[in-house]
From TrEMBL:
Keywords: Membrane, Transmembrane, Transmembrane helix. The chain crosses the membrane at residues 6-27. It comes from the Bacteria. It comes from Paenibacillus alginolyticus. This is Signal peptide protein. The keyword Transmembrane applies.
Amino acid sequence: MKQGRFWLMAAGFVVCILIIWGISSAFNKKPAVLSKATLGSPASTSSMNGEVPWDYQVQQAKVGDLLDGDMVLLPNNERISNDQNFATGDQVWVLSYMQATMKTDNQGKNDVTLSQWKPIKTFKTKEEAEKDAGELKIEIKTDVKLIGVYKTEQDGKFRYFAVADLPTGQKVKQPIPEERYVNFKNKKEVQVVLEEVHDYSNFDQSMAKFRGWAE
């Protein structure tokens, strides 16, 4: 009798352990949808909050003072590393970078603060500088969601606008002619030209800027 009671209690204990283990596994198991592809990355964020690359420019400058391995670029007195051993008085081509601090509200409106131009690299020729700049600013065509078109009237004159949703989550509003208003009226997607501006120190971080309609 005692032996039967012992085995009954042991069986009950094992069942309890199995139930607890099952509940623990259910809570710890990650859903299949949380794969690397769906978790996202900095390049696929839906909003552009924080610091993002904004633009690059190539300009000619003159080397001024040499300071401990650096040089001063004239006329703006900007200090940069003298990697190519330029001398005072040399003419150089300078690749400069502008950054933006962006805040996007719940309605998709952007508050943008632009930085000053910052020289990041010098070159002996304009062709070398423009080649580097061209690899950091890339123009592409892509389809985007058309939120809608609308028109306003003032003093009997109409103005037409289109609002599109960029891949970054930004919303852009652009004036359009009446012909494009009619063409876009019943569309859900349209093709646009975007300029991808990549960060020179982290190419995967980029900013997509609207550069026109592709249709």
